[in-house]
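Reading a protein record of the kind used here takes only a little practice. The record below shows the convention in full:
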Amino acid sequence: AVTGPYDIIALVQTPDPRHIGSLVMNEIHSVEGVKRTVTCMVIG
């Protein structure tokens, strides 16, 4: 279950963090019903 202001939490792993932006724009924003996203990166 997810509580708070978010409906879905997605975990994405990539060898190059520079690909996160294009992945979010091309794959996630193209999903019907997605109005906005928040990206938080884990460092370490």
